[in-house]
């Protein structure tokens, strides 16, 4: 049974207001049957230090990825994972996490590959919940395993592979990495470990819009007008555009995918999860260095 | 690089981790994270510390080798980075107060022996390996000085 939507005024301006909930809404509905809250963080221990009461943990690295192939879990793996967390197909799943919901947006994008019907992000994520002095606990909930059907992963709608990106050259693309990575000065994120790309730069034609620009200082999404100023105004996206977004391994660009698809309502937005760690290592694909597309 | 056997304290930490079932290893790492000692007042100025950029979250460390050749370690990482704090705390508990030779004899591959590869991911563990190699380098430099 789906929970009611959050009717917060700010969300009503977005193309799909139903994909966000506020901290107020979540506090009010925390004990409702039919709701599962899941925390997804960059730091694998952050959940253990304290989380929203009742929330389960969903780790991108050890749970959403296939352990061998560079890919996500398959339909069986996803069904097992959801069932273990007490999530069924009709559960309202609310995701939140650290760093402006960066990893929570990634988890949401992965659930989209399996078409989970009702999945929402907590606007402002973990930081806002804590800033408002809302309760945290170290108690890990005992969830009763649920039934989750095996759904084939659909990679055709919101995911792009390298060959598709090559065919997409000349059409709108957004590179969400830092300016240094975009220009080719850096081969990895500032302050992050080297993850190995042998060439620096960006995919020709891709516009640079670092992902965190979509977030306000308190970690919430910027209002629709501000987002339009960035993506339609500065980056020149047109209504109806077919858009590919990418970063380093597809996590930061999941955040931008969420903004373009759900908040601004572009009809066809795909996340290229191979991203720079694939493109920057591929033989004979075109690369542009410098600050211009 | 230096290889050798684990000192008894590190060996005990490895034993503590590997004797636990999977998820409980994360709880133990959390305990280490909670127990990381705060920086002493004299390191209030971050410029006195070395940053370890290989960690996913900011980590700063300081190494002192005193006149009798004993190594003292100091770390600083924010509470939002519990994994990094946990790694730092393991090194603190396993190496602080040992002689320089003992610290330098720590096998570089020890970080892979904690049984955390599948739980934490090798990428995240790289940060701890980087901390260890920076500690060793500072010990070598200070001993040579």
How would you portray this structure in words?
- The complex is a heterodimer of chains A (293) and B (145).
- Chain A has helices spanning 9-12, 23-29, 46-49, 60-64, 75-84, 102-113, 125-131, 162-168, 179-183, 224-234, 252-263, 275-279; strands at residues 20-21, 35-39, 56-57, 92-96, 119-122, 173-175, 207-208, 242-246, 268-272.
- By secondary structure, chain A is α/β, with parallel strands linked by helices.
- A five-stranded parallel beta sheet of chain A has the order 1-5-4-2-3. In chain A, strands 7-6-8-9 form a four-stranded parallel beta sheet, with helices on both faces.
- In chain A, α6 packs across α11 (252-263).
- The radius of gyration of chain A is 19 Å and the shape is globular.
- Chain A starts with 8 loop residues before the first helix and ends in a 14-residue tail after the last helix.
- With 145 residues, chain B is mainly alpha-helical.
- Chain B has six helices and three strands; from the N terminus they run ααβββαααα.
- The mean pLDDT of chain B is 89.
- Chain A binds chain B through residues 42-46, 48-49, 61-62, 67, 98, 191-195, and chain B through 26-27, 29-30, 33, 53-58, 79-84, 86, 118-121, 123-124, 126-127, 130.
Morphology call of chain A? globular
Strand content of chain A: 5-15%
How many runs of DSSP E, i.e. beta strands of chain A? 9
Cα separation of the termini of chain A: 46 Å
Uncertain stretches of 5 or more adjacent residues of chain A: none
Low-confidence stretches of chain B: none
The major β-sheet of chain A equals: 5 strands, parallel
Report the end-to-end length of chain B measured between terminal Cα atoms: 21 Å
Per the principal axes of the C-alpha atoms, what is the gross shape of chain B? globular
Element string of chain B (H = helix, E = strand): HHEEEHHHH
Radius of gyration of chain A: 19 Å
Features:
heterodimer; A: 293 residues; alpha/beta; 5-stranded parallel β-sheet; 4-stranded parallel β-sheet; 12 helices; 9 strands; B: 145 residues; mainly alpha; 6 helices; 49% helix
């Amino acid at each position: 049974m789906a929970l009611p939507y959050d009717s917060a005024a700010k969300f009503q301006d977005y193309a799909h207001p139903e994909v966000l909930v506020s901290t107020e809404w979540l506090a009010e509905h925390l004990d409702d049957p039919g709701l599962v809250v899941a925390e997804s963080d960059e730091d694998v221990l952050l959940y253990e230090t304290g989380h929203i009461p009742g929330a389960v943990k969903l780790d991108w690295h050890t749970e959403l990825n296939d352990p061998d192939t560079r890919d996500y879990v398959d339909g069986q793996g996803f069904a097992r994972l959801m069932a273990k967390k007490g999530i069924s197909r009709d559960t309202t799943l609310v995701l939140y996490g650290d760093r402006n919901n960066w990893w929570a947006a990634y988890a949401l994008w992965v659930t989209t590959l399996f078409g989970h019907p009702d999945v929402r992000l907590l606007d402002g994520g973990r930081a806002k919940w804590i800033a408002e002095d809302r309760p945290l606990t170290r108690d890990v909930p005992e969830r009763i395993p649920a039934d989750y059907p095996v759904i084939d992963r659909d990679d055709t709608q919101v995911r792009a592979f390298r060959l598709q990106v090559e065919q997409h050259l000349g059409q709108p693309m957004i590179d969400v990495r830092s300016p240094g990575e975009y220009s080719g000065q850096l081969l990895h994120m500032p302050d992050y470990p080297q993850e190995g790309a042998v060439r620096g730069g960006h995919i020709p034609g891709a516009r640079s819009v670092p992902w965190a620009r979509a977030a306000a200082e308190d970690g919430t999404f910027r209002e629709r007008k501000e987002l339009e100023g960035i993506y339609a105004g500065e980056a020149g996206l047109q209504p109806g555009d077919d858009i590919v977004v990418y970063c380093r391994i597809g996590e930061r660009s999941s955040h931008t995918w969420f903004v373009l698809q759900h908040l601004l309502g572009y009809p066809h937005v795909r996340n290229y999860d191979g991203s720079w760690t694939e493109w920057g290592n591929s033989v004979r694909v075109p690369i542009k260095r410098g600050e211009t597309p | 690089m230096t290889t050798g056997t684990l000192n008894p304290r590190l060996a005990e930490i490895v034993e503590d981790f590997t004797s636990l079932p999977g998820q409980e290893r994360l709880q133990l790492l959390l305990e280490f994270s909670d127990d990381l000692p705060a920086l002493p007042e004299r390191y209030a100025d971050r410029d006195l510390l070395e940053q370890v950029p290989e960690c996913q979250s900011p980590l700063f460390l300081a190494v002192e080798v005193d006149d009798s050749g004993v190594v003292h370690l100091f770390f600083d990482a924010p509470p939002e980075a519990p994994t990094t704090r946990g790694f730092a705390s393991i090194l603190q508990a396993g190496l602080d107060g040992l002689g320089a030779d003992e610290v330098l004899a720590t096998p570089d591959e020890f970080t892979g022996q904690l049984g955390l590869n599948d739980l934490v991911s090798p990428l995240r563990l790289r940060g701890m390996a980087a901390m260890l190699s920076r500690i060793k380098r500072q010990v070598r430099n200070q001993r040579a000085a």
